[in-house]
Design brief:
- The complex is a heterotrimer.
- Chain A is α+β, with helices and mostly antiparallel strands.
- Chain A has a domain of 250 residues: Aminohydrolase, N-terminal nucleophile (Ntn) domain (Glutamine Phosphoribosylpyrophosphate, subunit 1, domain 1, 4-Layer Sandwich), CATH 3.60.20.
- Helices cover 29% and strands 29% of the residues of chain A.
- In chain A, helix 1 packs antiparallel against helix 5.
- The longest helix of chain A has 15 residues.
- Chain B is α+β, with helices and mostly antiparallel strands.
- Chain B has two domains: 72 residues, no CATH class; 55 residues, Alpha-Beta Plaits.
- A two-stranded antiparallel ribbon of chain B has the order 1-8.
- In chain B, strand 6 and strand 7 form a beta hairpin.
- Chain C is of the alpha/beta class.
- Chain C has two domains: 63 residues, Alpha-Beta Plaits; 361 residues, TIM Barrel, CATH 3.20.20.
- Chain C has 15 helices and 21 strands.
- In chain C, the strands form seven sheets. Chain C has an eight-stranded parallel β-sheet with strand order 9-19-18-16-15-12-11-10. A three-stranded mixed β-sheet of chain C has the order 6-20-21, with helices on one face.
- In chain C, helix 11 links the parallel strand 18 and strand 19.
- In chain C, helix 4 crosses helix 14, helix 8 crosses helix 10 and helix 11 packs across helix 14.
- The longest helix of chain C has 25 residues.
- Chain C is globular, with a radius of gyration of 24 Å.
- Classes of the chains: A alpha+beta, B alpha+beta, C alpha/beta.
- Chains in contact: A-C, B-C.
- At the B-C interface, helix 1 and helix 2 of B face helix 1 of C.
Chain lengths: 365, 142, 501
């Protein structure tokens, strides 16, 4: 059977996200609890988490989480890393025995910063340099796969139910200001850890429930800009779109939402002229980044989360608040499990972005 | 009132209006059966010369000279449509002489015939329906 | 008299039991194939004059007529087919180059017919266009490379000029001269009503049609007929015609007999002179020259109009398209080898060029590989026959399609491929007043609007079935396509998988 990346695999899913806008860090326990409620929406073939604010002591370094098939591959990959980065710290990511989790690859973590000489020679900015290196490892070193590459954040994922994956990585021992989680229901059995979600590039992560009908249009539109879609998954291409629009094109998150879940022309026609012009401009310039078909996503970025549904709202998604925390999940039950007394429970409209940022922070998003 | 109007720009001179008129008048179901071997005598006629052609049929004038001229009261106006009562017509042809458009003719039995817009038989004029190029239209005009 | 080697290819069959001798067929045949025998009171016909245009068949009120292939056959020969032999006889008789019109009718593979579309099942929902918005609107033109913001942080509108279409279809170039005034009026009015564009071709723009300028693409071709500043600025886009799918490498020739009255005036040449469009543009012998013409036209139109460069699909189409995408052109139009013409040498029409499906797939891939796909939009033509062809073309990577033969069919064309005779019985490819008046633009416009409205509905249905509710999400979405009965090489060029994969 073809491995993930050689074949396109649609999947249904559960997603959940929690952010504390005060910036206070909390344990990953809550997100495990939340996603476990929606076990029904996964099938044990993939689960994972993104955690923001978990590495304050290394916040200036890129945290690379890498799967290796063998020690030999690890050696080859480390040689590559040493040629391009200053490695401040490296270690196996601590894991715990969970009987449901088997066939785990070797999972390592590196805190790195680009070598100044290499960086200068490349003529690239630090983030572009790092992302290019990630692409090179993932496409050229067979058996090595960088699945997390942002600063002060990390992705933890694997094959299994998400709550089991959470326990396996001991996510309850990580403290961050925001978490997202994903339980996967793929329609065949890839059995590959790299294929689990969230998908991440730099500090952008995406958890996604849906199957987008625009996939190949989006893939073929984004690849000329230096991205290589190795996994053939929606989540991968959505992450690249967000990275491209945010990092490379400088769009705001709100603008990104009106590109990927663009308002219908008949809706645009109802706005005043200047707003119309803006939407028309975005739809025309970024036509290849419009995403159609069902999706609900939680996109994580430095300092915030964005929840977004497709423009017809073909997937469920609920948002709620309590104090400084905002909760997002496929089902309300997954929120109430964590915080029974939530307030302002609502289901965002199709294409209506819910963007939650840390307060008092100037992230330029 | 709706009338038949002709636009000579689009008239092809194909004479299908004449045949549809004759077919409508025949009250039969199949045109081939109705008109095969028949020399038609329609109430609409194509006039053609020098590449210009157009159809002529009764204009249903508001102040019709034919009605005024009819000596027996065979011609009269019903809801704007000028109709001929064949039983009353004595075949004096004064109407034919007085019609400025030449839109009235005589039938095989010697009495007059004219376009009555097919209203009694088909609801709307068969010539208009049969025109392949919209050169004939049936519409309300000022 | 020399022996006539040719037996008519078609026979006119008249059902005597249905013929009422109304003589409409006789009246409508410009070729004189029908005749009324007054003494006998019956109709007769001469099939050697028949071009099989079906005008008589359609006009006959009793359906007494049909046209069938004549049974006359040469001794069977798999090598020397009937058409080959007939053409040889014709040339031996005339000593001339064979002329043909409309598109290549030969039995080459039609790739559109070997591609199947996808539909949603279970894992994602299909969308009902009767219940939900289903967007076919699109824009053609170059896209800006960077986002600019004003001091307040608002995005500046730095979009180059675009053509906005309600659906991804344009009427492609057919000159006034090659087709009639009424055909042009039908196309122009339909384009306006539909929110799309028609194309003047190389015949200038009749002064009556300046009012449709917002829906007009004005063409500049190698003969430069009818080109002046007012003409260029009257349109919504300017198209430089470098080639035509029906006759790549060949110019055009409208005989002086057709250069009469308004046509001469619109083309700005004396009445009765032949209008000869050279094979190349004599100011374009290479790509850098094209760039100069692109920018000359942009200067002439104050950079307000997108410039289209139209080329025929030939072997090295990808390299040509790549060059054009870097020439400042906003839109590349590619015309496949099945594209139509009002007249072309038969051998050229039937043997030169490549299928549009393959050209499109290769060009779209090449421009993406080079990272210059956003420099231009791609419009493809050369036998787009149905809404399914359009959906497939867009999924292969086209931004929109050009249709011409399909539009003429809607106006009555029966593909008799006799345009070069100038005696089109349907009033399309003719300038004879008695024939042109047969095309009433009220009817023509309505039929074009009907056709494209129907196609739009069908495009929406197919998109909805795939779970796609906006045409931009279909563009280049090759996973929605599967090949059927294609070999590895063909699949690789098309960039699609085989059915079942």
């Amino acid at each position: 059977m073809l491995k993930e990346g050689s074949v396109r695999i649609p999947s249904g899913c559960a997603i959940s996200g929690i952010i504390d806008t005060s910036g206070a860090r909390f344990s990953g326990e809550a997100i495990i609890k939340s996603i476990s409620v929606m076990r029904e929406r996964s099938n044990g073939l993939g689960g994972g988490f993104a955690a923001y604010g978990i590495y304050p002591e290394y916040k200036d370094y890129y945290a690379l989480h890498i799967f290796f098939d063998s020690s030999a591959v690890r050696k080859a990959c480390e040689e590559f890393l040493e040629r391009h980065f200053d490695i401040i710290n490296l270690s196996k990511i601590p894991t715990h025995t969970v009987k449901e989790i088997t066939d785990a690859p070797r999972i390592w973590r590196y805190f790195v910063t680009p070598l100044p000489t290499k960086l200068a020679a490349s003529g690239l900015c630090e983030r572009e340099f790092t992302s290019k290196c990630v692409f090179r490892i993932n496409t050229q070193i067979t058996g090595a796969y960088v699945f997390s590459s942002g600063k002060n954040m990390g992705v933890f994922k694997g094959v299994g139910y998400p709550e089991d994956i959470g326990r396996y990585f001991g996510l309850q021992n990580y403290f961050g200001y925001a978490f997202t989680a994903h339980g996967r229901y793929p329609t065949n059995t890839p059995g590959w850890w790299g294929g689990a979600h969230p998908f991440a590039l730099l500090d952008y992560t995406v958890v996604h429930n849906g199957e987008i009908s625009s996939y190949d249009a989006n893939r073929r539109a984004i690849e000329p800009y230096g991205y290589t879609c190795t996994l053939q998954t929606d989540t991968e291409v959505i992450t690249y779109i967000i990275d491209y629009l945010h990092r490379k094109k400088g769009l705001l998150m709100e603008e990104i939402a009106s590109v990927i879940a663009a308002p219908f022309w008949e809706t645009i026609a109802r706005f005043n002229t200047s707003v119309q012009e803006k939407y028309e401009y975005l739809r025309t310039v970024f036509a290849g980044q419009l995403i159609t078909g069902p999706f609900s996503i939680i996109a994580g970025f430095e300092g915030g989360l964005m929840a977004l549904n497709d423009r017809l709202k073909l997937r469920s998604m609920v948002v709620a608040e309590k104090g400084t925390k905002t909760y997002i999940a496929s089902e309300e039950a997954a929120i109430r499990m964590v915080e029974p007394d939530v307030e302002n429970v609502f289901a965002p409209d199709g294409g209506e972005p819910i963007i939650v940022r840390l307060r008092g922070e100037a992230h330029g998003n | 009132m709706k009338r038949v109007y002709v636009n000579e720009n689009w008239c092809l001179g194909c004479r299908l209006c004449e045949y549809h008129c004759a077919f409508a008048e025949s009250r039969q179901k199949d045109m081939a059966r109705a008109l095969r071997g028949v020399k038609i005598n329609p109430a609409i006629r194509i006039e053609a010369n020098n590449g210009i052609s157009f159809a002529v049929s009764c204009r249903h004038c508001k102040q019709p000279l034919c009605v005024k001229a009819c000596i027996t009261g065979a011609l009269h106006i019903t809801n704007g449509i000028i109709t001929a009562d064949k039983a009353r017509c004595v075949g004096c042809y004064t109407c034919i002489l007085s019609c400025p458009f030449g839109a009235i003719s005589q039938n095989e039995t010697g009495v007059i015939q004219k376009c009555e817009l097919c209203t009694a038989s088909h609801g709307s004029p068969a010539c208009v329906k049969g025109c392949p190029n919209n050169a004939l239209v049936y519409e309300e005009r000022e | 008299m020399a022996i006539n080697f040719l037996y008519p290819e078609y026979e006119i069959v008249r059902k005597e039991s249905r013929c009422i001798a109304c003589r409409a067929c006789e009246n409508q045949c410009a070729h004189g194939a029908h005749e009324f025998l007054a003494d006998k009171g019956v109709m007769t016909c001469d099939e050697s004059k028949c071009v099989n245009c079906h005008r008589c068949v359609c006009i006959c009120p009793t359906r007494a007529l049909k046209i069938v292939k004549s049974g006359n056959a040469y001794k069977q020969n798999a090598n020397w087919g009937q058409r080959t032999v007939d053409e040889l006889y014709r040339q031996a008789d005339s000593g001339g180059v064979l002329l043909s019109s409309m598109g290549n009718p030969q039995n080459y593979p039609v790739y559109f017919d070997k591609i199947l579309l996808n539909a949603s099942q279970v894992t994602n929902p299909s969308i009902d266009p009767l219940r939900e918005p289903m967007e076919t609107r699109c824009a053609l033109g170059a896209k800006p490379h960077r986002i600019e913001r004003d001091k307040k942080g608002n995005i500046k509108n730095n979009l180059p000029p675009q053509l906005k279409l309600s659906m991804p279809i344009l009427f492609s170039a057919m000159s006034y001269g090659s087709i009639s005034y009424n055909a042009h009026e039908s196309l122009a009015r339909a384009a306006q009503e539909l929110g799309i564009y028609y194309n003047t071709g190389e015949g200038g723009l009749h002064e009556d049609f300046y009012k449709y300028g917002k829906n007009t693409v004005v063409q500049v071709a190698s003969g430069r007929f009818g080109v002046h500043s007012g003409y260029l600025n009257a349109g919504a886009a300017v198209e430089i015609k470098m080639g035509q799918g029906a006759k790549p490498g060949i110019g055009g020739h409208l005989p002086g007999t057709k250069i009469v009255g308004d046509i001469a005036r619109t083309r700005m040449i004396p009445e009765g002179t032949d209008a000869i469009s050279p094979a190349p543009h004599h100011d374009i012998y290479s790509i850098e020259d094209l760039r100069q013409l692109v920018y000359s036209l942009k200067e002439a139109t104050d950079y307000k109009l997108p410039v289209i460069v139209k080329i025929a699909a030939v072997h090295n189409i990808t390299a040509i398209a790549s060059g054009i995408a870097r020439s400042g052109a906003d839109i590349i139009a590619i015309d496949g080898f099945r594209g139509g013409t009002g007249a072309a040498p038969t051998r050229i029409r039937d043997h030169v060029g490549i299928p549009i499906e393959l050209a499109l797939a290769s060009v779209d891939k090449r421009l993406r590989d080079e990272g210059i796909r956003d420099n231009v939009s791609l419009v493809v033509g050369g036998s787009i026959r149905s809404s399914a062809d359009i959906v497939k073309a867009v999924a292969l990577g086209a931004d929109a399609v050009y249709i011409a033969s399909a539009a003429l069919l809607a106006l009555g064309c029966h593909l008799c491929r006799s345009c070069q005779t100038g005696k089109c019985n349907w009033g399309i490819a003719t300038q004879i007043p008695q024939l042109t008046k047969r095309l009433n633009p009220d009817i023509g416009c309505k039929r074009l609007v009907n056709l494209l409205s129907a196609w739009k509905h069908e495009i929406q249905e197919m998109m909805g079935g795939m779970g796609i509710n906006s045409i931009e999400a279909l563009k280049g979405n090759r996973l929605m396509l599967r090949g059927i009965g294609l070999n590895e090489r063909e699949l690789a060029v098309l960039g699609i998988k085989h059915a079942g994969e």
